[in-house]
Amino acid sequence: MEERRPDPDLLIDRIRRETERSHEGQLKIFFGAAPGVGKTYAMLGAAQQKRTEGIDVVVGLVETHGRKETEALLAGLEMIPRLPIEYRSATLAEFDIDAALKRKPDLIVVTNSPTQMLPTLVIKSDGRTYTNFSAPGFPYIPQ
């Protein structure tokens, strides 16, 4: 009986593709039918679980809307300082994608969807332009 062994070059190619895929960013969206149904709470709970599993988790932007239970879930999570942005004669504190990219966490939590951000907000980083806070190879979890 002839032994069939896998082609080593094909195995190496498969391993290389799987390794490349493991470095790609993933998107997880927490949907809810209305404000206050627990999207941010569930997201921060999931982030805390990942942190206990040894995943490097940071908070990029979270709005707790003054809910004490939600604020409590921020305990132990590193927060990326907000970036001050001038908009219509006001200074707003927004998500700092450059700081997030420099920090290179395994997972970043962002609870404001792009529709809640400034209508003309475009973020430029490393010569590239990003909208909706997406960047190649960078995990992003919007609300």
Provide a descriptive summary of the structure in words.
Helix content is 29%, strand content 19%. By secondary structure, the protein is of the alpha/beta class. It has one domain: P-loop containing nucleotide triphosphate hydrolases (Rossmann fold, 3-Layer(aba) Sandwich), CATH 3.40.50. The strands form three sheets. It has a three-stranded parallel β-sheet with strand order 2-1-5, with helices on one face. A hairpin with a 2-residue loop joins β6 and β7. The longest helix is centred in the N-terminal third of the chain and has 15 residues.
Question: What is the topology?
Answer:
Blueprint: H1 8-22, H2 39-52, E1 57-61, H3 68-72, E2 78-79, E3 83-87, E4 90-94, H4 97-103, E5 107-110, E6 123-125, E7 128-130
Parallel strand pairs: 1-2, 1-5
Antiparallel strand pairs: 3-4, 6-7
How many whole angstroms does the radius of gyration measure?
A: 19 Å
Which percent range describes the beta-strand content? 15-25%
> Judging by the overall fold, what is the CATH architecture?
3-Layer(aba) Sandwich
Overall 3D form: elongated
Task: Provide keyphrases for this structure.
single chain; 143 residues; alpha/beta; Rossmann fold; three-stranded parallel β-sheet; two-stranded antiparallel ribbon
Structure summarized in a few sentences:
The chain has four helices and seven strands, in the order ααβαβββαβββ. With 143 residues, the protein is an alpha/beta fold.
